[in-house]
Amino acid sequence: MIEKRGRNIAIAVFLLPGLIYYSFFVLSPVVQGLVLSMYRWVSLERRVFVGFDNYLSVFRDRIFWQSVRASLLFMIITTFFQVIFGFLFGYFLYLQPKFERTFKTIFFIPVVLNTVAVGFIWGYIYSPAFGLLKPAMEALGLGHYYVPPLAQPSTALLAVIVAHIWQAFGIQIMLFNAGFMNMPPEVIEMASIDGAAGFTMIRYMIIPLSWEISKTVIILQIIGALRAFDLVYVMTGGGPNHATELLPLNMFVYAFENFNFGNGSVVATIIFVLCMTFTLGLRRMMRREVLQY
Amino acid sequence: MGATREKKDQEWIARSQLKISSRWGRFFVYSALSFNTIMILLPLFWLLITSLKSQQDLAQNIWGLPKQVVWSNYVVAWVGGKIGIYFFNSVLATASNIFFSVIASVTIAYALSRFHFKLKRFLYYLVIAGMMIPIHAAVIPLYITAMKLKMMNNLIYLGIIYAAFRIPVSVFILESFMVTIPKELEECAIIDGASYYSIFFRIILPLSADGIITITILSALASWNELLLAMLMLSRPFIKTLPLGLMGFITEWTTEYTILCAGLLIACIPNVLFYAFMKEKIVRGMTVGAIKG
Lengths: 293, 293
Known about the structure:
- The complex is a heterodimer of chains A (293) and B (293).
- Chain A has 293 residues and is mainly alpha-helical.
- In chain A, 74% of the residues lie in helices and 2% in strands.
- Chain A has helices spanning 2-36, 53-59, 62-94, 100-112, 115-126, 133-139, 153-181, 185-193, 198-209, 211-227, 230-235, 247-257, 261-285, and strands spanning 39-41, 47-49.
- A two-stranded antiparallel sheet of chain A has the order 1-2.
- The longest helix of chain A is centred in the N-terminal third of the chain and has 35 residues, at 2-36.
- Chain A is globular, with a radius of gyration of 24 Å.
- Chain B is mainly α and 293 residues long.
- Chain B has helices spanning 2-12, 23-51, 55-60, 72-80, 83-114, 120-128, 139-148, 155-178, 183-191, 196-207, 209-224, 228-233, 242-252, 257-292.
- The radius of gyration of chain B is 24 Å and the shape is globular.
- Chains A and B meet through helix 1, helix 3, helix 4, helix 5 and helix 7 of A and helix 2, helix 5, helix 6, helix 7 and helix 8 of B.
């Protein structure tokens, strides 16, 4: 009896402080955000309950819908590119090329660099005065097509996406590569002896065997894209003309530039709901029978 | 020592059974890998040579090597950019993050991995679910709370918030380390009269050292590069963290590209050194959770 009590006390001692800490800083702010999205701030001290009015006002805002569009585009393009090429490059490295170690080391460098620095480097590459892009395009004979990418609403989002991919690509390569390394070598060897190679190998062996890791990479990538803030903020601040104002930036502008916490919380809630929906939805959609090997 | 070193090397370049068989395949793979290498290294190399040019030199030749190497850019950037102060501030916030996140995660993971009790699964998923919560969904309430608690411009408090958001992924990683520790070790210790607390300190902690190092590294990287929360919480000039300080540095020196590049390179040195020494651990840490699925 005493034994059992001691055990329960030990569990509580180890579990509770951490859980309370976690609840206070992570869970409770999310719930508070839901509550805040139903209030209008009169001043910093005084707020009034307005029900779903903030939601209606956000949904009537043209810039909000532009943000949704920009975020979805950002998500689709980065995911498409990073998943397909991350898979391929992860596979190339799995094939034991020479200098495998060097390639891996280099591919991962941008991931650990400071995002502010990366944002600046790419802003600099795109800049009309001293940038790399303009002379590069001139060298290719495309000089007269050059427009400063970050200054044009039509190209700014794409320019930011390229920078984002440059920085984050290494993660996907490594994730896929690590997933491939985890495949049972005997099975791959058997298939190889049976004559599977190249795309046949990828289609019938690698993709089915690495389905779990692919699922994880896609989900991580989508959540990452919905959260993207730092790099975009550094490069464009959401401009020009809101073209790169992804949802987190939209939230930031509402809450901390216009000091409209109510509308900001509405957007924060939407980001949260989108993250949850995509994660759980994709998990369900990509559920397959686990291959037994 | 030599043996463990070798084992780590094997993990880093674990052998697969596949080799590239056709000549065209080999050509294609090496071209793709080399192209990606150039795409990553070129901007960084360019940043380096720009940082060594004089402003006039840069205006005349954007691509070429510096006519004369100007080291003084680095001195100007270091002194004028106050990078030393920002660096110290980032170290403080990161240290606070590591301290709190490791303590909270280790205790939670211990309780969840080594005991059986009601609600265990529920609590585990409650903690893990935090991985899906983007910090943006919580940032407005966190800001209001910090204001109420008069914790603005407090680097330790900033680290405490970072730490709370590291708990989900850290518990996820640690739990997977701790469940593998053989139950017999604990049972023997209990027969010898050890308490749960001494089991925790004498057996569990030493045996999950690898996991603790992994979560420490990942936490450090995450808070070192974080911008959004730092931007909201810190407003005094001498309290800024490195990413935030860099933002100011970039706007302040906006026309002097050579000095800017020198400053950004200085700011990236800690990241690069950290990466150089911890490469295997960083990459493994970032992939270990995903593979577990």
